[in-house]
Amino acid sequence: MTVLQDSRGLMWFGTKDGLNCFNGYDNIVYRKTSGDSLSLGNNFVHSLYEMPGAGELWVGTDDGVYIHDFRGGGFVRFSVTTQEGMLVSGPVKDIVDGKDGSVWIIAYDTGIFRYWPQQRRLTLYSPPDKVSTTHPWTISLDSKGILWAATFDGGFNRYDAESDSFVFTPIPGTGKDPAERNPRSFLDDPANNCMWIGTISYGLVRYDMTSGKMFRYMDSDAGCKILGINDMAKLNDNELLIGADNGLFIFNLASRQHERLTVSPYNAYEEFRSVYAVVPDHEGGFWIGAYYDGVHYLRPGFEYIRHYDIPETEGVVVSCIAPTADDTGVWLGMTKDGGLCRFNIKAKDFIPYSARMDHTNVRSICEIGKELWVGFHSDGLLRYNTVTGTKKYYRSGEDTTTLSHQAIYKIYRAKSGNIYVGTILGLDLYVPEKDCFMRIPEIRDTRVNDITEDHLGLMWVATYENGLFQYNPTLQTWTRFVNSPDPGSLPVNKLICLYTDRYNRLFVGTEGGGLVQYNYETRQFITIAEEGKLPSKIISSIESDHVGNLWVAAGKALCRIDAQTRELRIIEEGVNTIGSLFTNNASYAMPDGTLLFGRTGGLLVIYPEMLNINHCPPKIHITETGNSAGPVWTDEKGTIVLGPGNSSFYAEFVALSYLAPRLNKYSYYMEGLEKPWSHTVYDRT
C-alpha cells in the first residue's frame, strides 16, 4: 500500500490490485487491460512519484516503472536503459526526487538507479563498489540533500557525492542478530536535528545529524510494543505518527509514551493492522494505508478530537453526561444496558458503576452533594450515596406525591436548591421535607427534555410537543411559547435542548426547526443558521468554548458557530457510519474548556483551543467538459474552442478538500460575460 497526493490535490493509492485516484467524491481504478497498450502494465503498485512540473505520475510496480500522463490519461513504460543496457525492472520499491534535477529509483534485487530527465541518462548503483546490497527497501532525502537507503544488513546506506557511491553505516545494538536492526523507514526532523529510523524489531533509532551518533530511542522489547515501523510522519513538534506492523500509534518524543489509534471512531473497537503508509496532505490531514484495512483518512486536528468506546458495555450509547462533584471527571450514563461509569479524562480511566445498581438503562444523571441521582429509561429514579453505598428508588404510582412516570428524561438542581425531575408525562418537583414529589400542574402530559436557568433567574423548560415554558420564581408565574403563524414564534413545538451562554443568550435546539435564539427585548425567536447551512434540523445538544463559540450537535455532525461572525463550520461528521449519531442532551463543557459529546457509538472528547481551522479554500479540479453533443476534450494547449452553434456548454468539477467534501457549496460566474454569481449550492456542474 502506497499513498501520494499530487500537486493538484488528487489522492493516489497504490495497491496489489491496481492504482486508485480519489477526488473526495469519486474513485477511479487503473488496472492492466489485455490488448490496451496504454493501460497500467502491472497491477501490483509499490511506489508513487510525481515529476515536478511535468504533469506525470511515476508508478513503481512489481515489474518496472510506468509513467502516467495527467492530460492524456494513459500509461507508458519507463524504457530508458543504462549504458550497459540495464532496464529498470522487477519490484520498484521507492522513487524520490533528488532535488538536483535527478530522480532516484529503488529496484529490489537490482540496486539503486539514478535518472537525469534532461539528458535521459540512467545510472545503476550496484554492489560491491557503489552500494552494499542489491536489496534496498526504501529511500529518503534529508533536508541537507543527503540520500538514505534502507537495507537488510542491519544498517543503512548514505550517498556520498564526492565518491558518487553509497557508504554503509551499521545501526549499533546489543543483539546478536543484526537483522533485528534492519531499517524500514526514515523521517527527517530538522527541528530536532536528527533522522528518525524505524526498524523491523529494534524500535525507533535516533541519528544525530551533528555528531553522527545513534541510540535506541524507543525499545520495542521494554513495554512500548511498536513492532515493524513501516512509515512515520511528524504530527506536531513533540509527537510522531507511526505506522507499524501492529497498528497506528501516536508517539510522544518527550515522555517516550505511545497511544494506539483505532480504525474507526464510530464502530466497535478495532485496531489498525499492518500500516504501511502515513502521508500528510495539503490541508493537514493524514492518509493511512493499511495492508488489510484499506485507506483511512484522519482529518486535520484529529488528535484533538478523540473518540472513546466505553469498555465492557454492549450498547455504548452515551445518553447523558454530568460533572462529578470534584470536577475531576464526568459521569456517563448509557442506554441499551450500558449502565453507568465514571470517566477521568486526564487518566483516560473508566470506573464502572453498573454493578451497584438494579437497572442499567440510564437516561439522566445529577450529582447532588454525596448523592448521585440517576434517572432510568423506564425504571424510575435512584438516589445513590457514593460514600456509603445506600440506595433508594422512586417510582410512579396512583398517588400524586409519586413520580408522574417511570421514564425519566431530566434531573435538574436549580440555583435555589430545588430539584426538578422531567418525565415523559410532565415536570415534578422534589419535596425534601416529605421525601416525595409534587407534580407541576402547568406542565402535564408532555415529555420534558431539558431544563435551564438564565441570568435573570428565570427557569426554562423544553418539552417535546408542547413548546417552551418559562417560570418566574419571583412572581411564581408560568409563560408558554409555541409555534404559531406569528413572526418570531418557535419554528416547531418539538424541543430537545436548551443552553445559556456567557453572553446571557438563550438558545433552543429543536427537532425539525434547527437552532433558534430567544430575544429578550422582543420576546421572539431568531433562527441562528441560515436555511441549509446546518447539516440537520435536529439539534441534539449545545455547548460553548472559552471564547464563546457555540458547538452544536446536529444529527451526525458537530458544528462550530463563531461567536462574533456566526460563521458555521462542520468540525466532525459521521456520514453513513454506524454509531455516529449524537444523542439528545448528552454534552458537557469541562472547566478547562474540554468539550464532551455523547454518541450512539461512544464518547467524543474535543479540545477546541487546540484545533487549527483551515481557512484556505480548496483547489478546483475540472473533471469533464462538454456541450450538447457530449464530452469535449482540451487541445494540446489545454483549451477548448467553442464554435458557432456551441454557445451552450458544461463543466463538471470537484473541490479538492477532504474534510467534508459533500458539504461544500459552490458558486460560479463567467468572467467578462456576467457579473452576478450563479449559485449551484451542492451541484458540481
Q: Tell me the helix content.
A: under 10%
Largest sheet: 4 strands, antiparallel
User: Helical element count?
Assistant: 0
CATH architectural type of the domain at 2-234 = 7 Propeller
Measure the end-to-end span.
33 Å
Shape call? globular
Overall mean pLDDT stands at: 89
Integer-rounded radius of gyration: 31 Å
User: Low-confidence spans: pLDDT under 50, at least 5 residues?
Assistant: 264-269
Strand line-up of the largest beta sheet: 1-2-3-4
CATH C-level class of the domain at 2-234: Mainly Beta
Number of strands: 60
The CATH homologous superfamily of the domain at 2-234 is named YVTN repeat-like/Quinoprotein amine dehydrogenase
Query: In CATH terms, what is the fold-level topology of the domain at 2-234?
Result: Methylamine Dehydrogenase, Chain H
Structural class: mainly beta
Strand content: over 45%
